[in-house]
From TrEMBL, chain A:
<comment type="function">
    <text>NDH-1 shuttles electrons from NADH, via FMN and iron-sulfur (Fe-S) centers, to quinones in the respiratory chain. The immediate electron acceptor for the enzyme in this species is believed to be a menaquinone. Couples the redox reaction to proton translocation (for every two electrons transferred, four hydrogen ions are translocated across the cytoplasmic membrane), and thus conserves the redox energy in a proton gradient.</text>
</comment>
<dbReference type="GO" id="GO:0042773">
    <property type="term" value="P:ATP synthesis coupled electron transport"/>
</dbReference>
<dbReference type="InterPro" id="IPR039428">
    <property type="entry name" value="NUOK/Mnh_C1-like"/>
</dbReference>
<keyword id="KW-1133">Transmembrane helix</keyword>
<dbReference type="GO" id="GO:0050136">
    <property type="term" value="F:NADH dehydrogenase (quinone) (non-electrogenic) activity"/>
</dbReference>
UniProtKB/TrEMBL annotation, chain B:
<feature type="transmembrane region" description="Helical">
    <location>
        <begin position="30"/>
        <end position="49"/>
    </location>
</feature>
<keyword id="KW-0472">Membrane</keyword>
<keyword id="KW-0874">Quinone</keyword>
<feature type="transmembrane region" description="Helical">
    <location>
        <begin position="55"/>
        <end position="81"/>
    </location>
</feature>
<comment type="function">
    <text>NDH-1 shuttles electrons from NADH, via FMN and iron-sulfur (Fe-S) centers, to quinones in the respiratory chain. Couples the redox reaction to proton translocation (for every two electrons transferred, four hydrogen ions are translocated across the cytoplasmic membrane), and thus conserves the redox energy in a proton gradient.</text>
</comment>
From TrEMBL, chain C:
<dbReference type="InterPro" id="IPR029014">
    <property type="entry name" value="NiFe-Hase_large"/>
</dbReference>
<feature type="compositionally biased region" description="Basic and acidic residues">
    <location>
        <begin position="111"/>
        <end position="167"/>
    </location>
</feature>
<protein>
    <submittedName>
        <fullName>Uncharacterized protein</fullName>
    </submittedName>
</protein>
<feature type="region of interest" description="Disordered">
    <location>
        <begin position="106"/>
        <end position="197"/>
    </location>
</feature>
Automatic annotation (TrEMBL), chain D:
<dbReference type="GO" id="GO:0009060">
    <property type="term" value="P:aerobic respiration"/>
</dbReference>
<keyword id="KW-0812">Transmembrane</keyword>
<dbReference type="GO" id="GO:0003954">
    <property type="term" value="F:NADH dehydrogenase activity"/>
</dbReference>
<keyword id="KW-0472">Membrane</keyword>
<keyword id="KW-1133">Transmembrane helix</keyword>
Length: 101, 186, 462, 295
């Protein structure tokens, strides 16, 4: 095992997540794509900590930031879906886009 | 041992990630995402970040469980009876993602990664705590503020009822007008 | 296989019993419950956990839905069922069920396990010996009906017919009839993934306004008639969003025309008809009726210990225990229930029925007296229990005017339970599932009272 | 003081847990009917509901006992645990959270309304108890200045944490009941929903699920011993005996409490947990932090 292998796995997760985030119409599914991308980021940060600079805690802090970002993204995402749903009964990105018109 | 663990977790993580968008059932999709993220947590443990790995497992389990509820709330699809075709521009996205992946891999393989400096501390958890409460204090405070702002923002966004709805226009009601009575006897 | 069979025999020696009470079969239910308590057989909370299904009375289908048959299909093998048509035959029938299970366990092989439909029929063969059935003729016809229904189950979904009926354990499909095409909003068509109608025969959810201002999916779930601790014969058709009851309508499975007066209001009905009834008889019946309701309420509230005590006390009261014995036991029970601040914390504010509202619906009895929530109604029951115990040795004749039964004024043409059933939908709307259960249990309508009565002196039986 | 047990302990652990759970369950049932009940589930056929997601049900029912055993890995008997992880407390919490997923999956899978309600209820319960629960175990960790369970036990050589962190201890006991959805917190499998999440389970599935629930209950109760009751510390008796004794006492207390209290509904408890228990737990953590700083 080395840094490259970890990063490739992280990149795979990131790209799968990106695919999901780009293609899914449902906001909830889109958020699942984002989660997966952030999972890739977490893995990359952990690998970077281990293989590049284990003596400092910067890599770990990056992981903490990514985890927090996941939590915030989830919470805000669901709040927005709830708000949209309450006002327009919309849970899909395309429909949210139509609302602008 | 660690190598085997790494590969098993890596394959499971990516497979779980792919299955998220292939399952018909929302519940399966969520829990396949959970599998993927639990494997990421496992990889962190393989890397020696036990605390962060376990915290990832803890957070993701709870997060996915709550996500499942929201999902079912907003899109009823009992056990995948109806195939979901809720995608747009699939082909373009696939092309984009494959390109991104190829570029990333090329970058990863070609980049001159620095040599490993220093060795891991005996207890990375202490290290992390010291960092967050010392040099990285600003990060920690920002995260704290962000989380606090999130709490406020989500409540504002998600609820429709404020104190005027609950306690009347002059806020004089002794007992809030809630659809369900709470447990503190207010 | 031999070991497996032997283990099966040991296990099924005390089967878990699911007691399903048909409307109008209170006597049979009480007999079976007492017998189960005596034998210390475990009670199953649903078909999945049951080995032996005991039908008290003859379950009447709700509309075109033969819920009893669906329930039976949902019980995993090895299984047996018995029908108790007569309180005196309870012990006999249960024993018979046990024997059928033991025989079934002995002959049960692996192939049979793979073919549930075949196995069911096998059980059915052994389950209705005429001698305990009370009604030989009807027992025979049921038997036939069952045999012919076997193949059709087979080509349908095997014994998996139980599935869709979350709510009642007895089929919910027909709860959805007529909803397929009636979409509330036009924007509905946007939702490609979100059509009404049915897939695989399962109804899909559709949206409707709800309590919290979100138009979420609602599920049509009928509650009853075979939920544990549920008034026999009551079916509440609910629209659930999550676990919140958004709308409810009540359907009472009216018990078959019978010559027997409703069990819990029997003394007063007899007195109204001019027969001589003593005060102690009425007091005992009232005491037992309220103990039954209290036991059910506490069981729904999840307080199993005193619920069991209440039920035991009920059987004692009906069994004619002396007043002195009863008094100390009942005082302990009522004091314990009154003193529980957690029970008060959990049940106050649930299902508030003010006396003005109650009067509007014509409610009489404890529900009117309580003038408040589920907890107040419980307190009224407890008070009446305490008072009724004191009258349990009063042999004077019951005054035949102003008759008040355990559930309210005795009026054969407008029974008190009818008003309780009528008031249910209003109280249930907007409650969460657990609260809805508490509301129903705190009113505890007795659907036996709704049975159309034969003229006195008709061909009595049982 | 903490030592790591040899490898065979990993095999013994589930067996020991099952034995304790068996003992507790038979005391609770007040009769010898337990063995028969288990046998009955063993001979009973599994059953499938229409359009059920069998995979999810199987995952859910299996995950519950697995999570309980995994959580018990950090549980010391005397001063030995199978593995005294450096982040043992977080590990315990994470494994216990797996029960959220397990119960929800079991409730969702059978495609039945009552069972789904059971699943929902457990998530509501989780949200209610988890906040004060995490603060309570954090308080104990704070008092020992370590996340290692062994260090926690060592820190209580003098004074038990239960004595000077009574609020955290109380909150922990409540959440131990809630996380095992047992006793007053059994709403997810309550009789009012005909067994809730377990309502559609039969045979081995049911045995795994309900047995897993007992295991979780025992583990949750037993974990209060190293957290607050000094683990194996005690005079005269050997350390393992003290652990067993204290665990039995906690189990007994919880089982007694269940007979006194009806089922707690989450719409009531969640407000109590967030408005009363959480601030109390924060205040307790503050007090402990000040004491630790002053040491």
């Amino acid at each position: 095992m080395n840094l490259e292998v970890f990063l490739i796995v992280a990149a795979a997760l990131f790209c799968v997540g990106l695919f999901g985030a780009l293609t899914q119409q449902s906001i909830v599914m889109l958020m699942m794509g984002l989660e997966l991308m952030l999972g890739g980021v977490i893995l990359a940060a952990g690998a970077a900590w281990h293989y590049i600079a284990p003596a400092t805690a910067d890599g770990q802090v990056l992981v903490v930031v990514a985890i927090t970002a996941m939590a915030v993204e989830m919470a805000i995402g669901f709040a927005v879906v709830t708000a949209l749903f309450r006002s327009r009964e919309v849970d899909m990105t395309d429909m949210a886009a139509e609302l602008r018109e | 041992m660690t190598t085997a663990a790494f590969w098993i977790l890596a394959v499971l993580a990516v497979a779980g990630g792919v299955m998220v968008f292939r399952f018909d059932s929302m519940a399966r999709a969520t829990f396949s995402l959970l599998t993927a993220l639990l494997c990421v947590g496992g990889e962190l443990i393989v890397l020696g970040l036990e605390y962060l790995g376990i915290v990832t497992v803890l957070m993701m389990t709870i997060e996915m469980a709550i996500m499942a509820v929201f999902m079912i709330m907003f899109m009823m699809n009992p056990a995948g009876l109806m195939p979901m075709t809720m995608v747009h521009n699939k082909r373009g996205a696939a092309a984009l993602c494959v390109t991104a992946f190829v570029l990333l891999v090329a970058g990863i393989l070609l980049a001159p990664w620095p040599r490993r400096r220093g060795r891991a501390p005996a207890d990375p958890t202490t290290d992390l705590g010291m960092a967050l409460m010392g040099p990285q204090m600003l990060t920690m405070m920002t995260l704290g503020m962000a989380l606090f702002a999130t709490i406020v923002a989500t409540v504002v966004l998600a609820t429709r009822r404020g104190r005027y709805e609950r306690y009347g226009d002059d806020l004089r009601a002794t007992r809030p007008d809630d659809p369900v009575r709470g447990g503190v006897g207010r | 296989m031999d070991l497996r069979n032997r283990l099966g025999r040991v296990a099924l020696d005390r089967p878990a019993v699911l007691l399903v009470t048909a409307a109008g079969a209170t006597r049979e239910r009480l007999a079976v419950e007492a017998e189960l308590a005596r034998r210390r057989w475990p009670r199953a909370s649903g078909p999945a956990a049951a080995d032996l299904v005991a039908f008290a009375g003859a379950p009447a289908p709700a509309g075109d839905d033969d819920w009893a048959e669906r329930l039976w299909n949902g019980v995993p093998a090895p299984k047996a069922r018995v029908r108790v048509r007569d309180p005196e035959h309870a012990a006999h029938a249960l024993e018979h069920g046990r024997m059928a299970l033991l025989v079934g366990a002995g002959t049960q092989g692996r192939q049979e396990q793979r073919e549930p439909a075949g196995h069911e029929r096998h059980d059915a063969d052994g389950e209705h010996p005429p001698q305990h059935d009370g009604h030989t003729a009807s027992g025979r016809s049921e038997h036939d009906g069952h045999t012919t229904s076997g193949p059709s189950e087979h080509d349908g979904h095997g014994h998996d017919a139980h599935q869709d009926h979350g709510g009642s354990h007895a089929g919910t499909d027909q709860g959805h009839h007529g909803h397929g095409g009636s979409h509330p909003g036009t924007d509905h068509d946007h939702h490609g993934h979100h059509m009404g109608g049915a897939i695989l025969g399962l109804p899909m959810a559709e949206r409707a306004d709800d309590r919290d201002g979100l138009r979420l999916d609602r599920l049509h779930v009928p509650l009853g008639p075979a939920l544990p601790d549920w008034p026999a014969g009551l079916v509440v058709r609910t629209e659930l969003q999550g676990d919140v009851v958004q709308r409810a309508s009540v359907e009472a499975l009216v018990p078959p025309r019978s010559s027997r007066p409703a069990f819990w209001s029997e003394p007063w009905l007899r007195s109204a008809a001019g027969a001589p009834v003593t005060v102690d008889e009425a007091a005992r019946r009232r005491c037992a009726a309220h103990l039954d309701s209290v036991g059910r309420f506490l069981a729904v509230a999840g307080w199993r210990d005193p619920a069991a005590v209440a039920r035991r006390a009920r059987d004692q009261v009906l069994g004619g225990a002396s007043v002195a014995d009863l008094r100390s036991g009942l005082r302990t029970l009522t004091r314990r229930v009154r003193r529980s601040w957690t029970l008060r914390w959990l049940t106050s504010g649930v299902g508030v029925l003010s006396s003005t509202q109650a009067q509007r619906y014509g409610v009489t009895g404890p529900a009117l007296l309580a003038d408040g929530d589920a907890y107040d109604r419980l307190l009224v029951w407890l008070e009446e229990i305490d008072r009724a115990v004191d009258a349990c040795d009063d042999r004077s004749p019951l005054a035949s005017h102003a008759l008040n039964g355990p559930r309210g004024r005795i009026a054969p043409e407008a029974p008190a339970s009818r008003t309780l059933v009528d008031v249910l939908p209003v109280l249930l709307e907007g409650t969460e599932f657990a609260c809805a259960r508490l509301v129903v249990a705190s009113l505890d309508p007795d659907l036996d009272e709704l049975a159309p009565q034969h003229a006195r002196g008709g061909h009595a039986h049982g | 003081m903490a030592e790591t047990a040899p490898l065979w302990a990993a095999v013994v652990l589930p067996v020991a847990l099952v034995l304790v759970a068996w003992a507790a369950a038979s005391v609770d049932a007040r009769s010898a009917g337990l063995g028969r009940a288990v046998l009955r589930l063993l001979v009973q056929q599994r059953r499938l509901t229409r359009a059920a997601d069998v995979l999810l049900v199987r995952v859910g029912t299996t995950l519950l006992p697995v999570a309980a055993v995994l959580a018990a890995v950090v549980l010391p008997l005397g001063f030995r645990s199978v593995s005294d992880l450096p982040d043992g407390i977080v590990w315990f919490n994470a494994m216990e959270a797996l029960a959220w997923a397990a119960v929800w999956l079991t409730g969702w899978g059978p495609n039945s309304a009552l069972s789904l309600i059971g699943g929902y209820r457990f998530l509501a319960q989780g949200l209610a108890y988890e906040l004060p629960h995490m603060l309570a175990i954090t308080t104990a960790a704070l008092g020992a200045e370590s996340l290692r369970v062994g260090a926690l036990v060592d820190a209580q050589a003098g004074l038990w944490f239960a004595v000077w962190m009574p609020v955290a201890f109380g909150v922990y006991l409540l959440s131990a009941l809630a996380m095992a959805f047992w006793g007053p917190f059994d709403q997810p499998v309550g009789t009012d929903v005909a067994g809730g999440a377990a309502s559609e389970l039969a045979g081995v599935d049911r045995l795994l699920f309900l047995g897993g629930r007992w295991l979780l209950f025992v583990v949750a109760a037993a974990f209060s011993v190293p957290l607050f009751l000094g683990g194996g510390q005690g005079p005269f008796l050997p350390a393992w005996a003290w652990t067993v004794l204290k665990t039995a006492a906690v189990l007994g207390l919880l089982m007694w409490a269940r007979r006194r209290v009806p089922t707690v509904r989450m719409e009531r408890y969640v407000e109590l947990a967030w408005v009363v228990l959480t601030p109390l737990a924060v205040a307790q953590a503050l007090v402990v932090a000040v004491v630790v700083l002053g040491r």
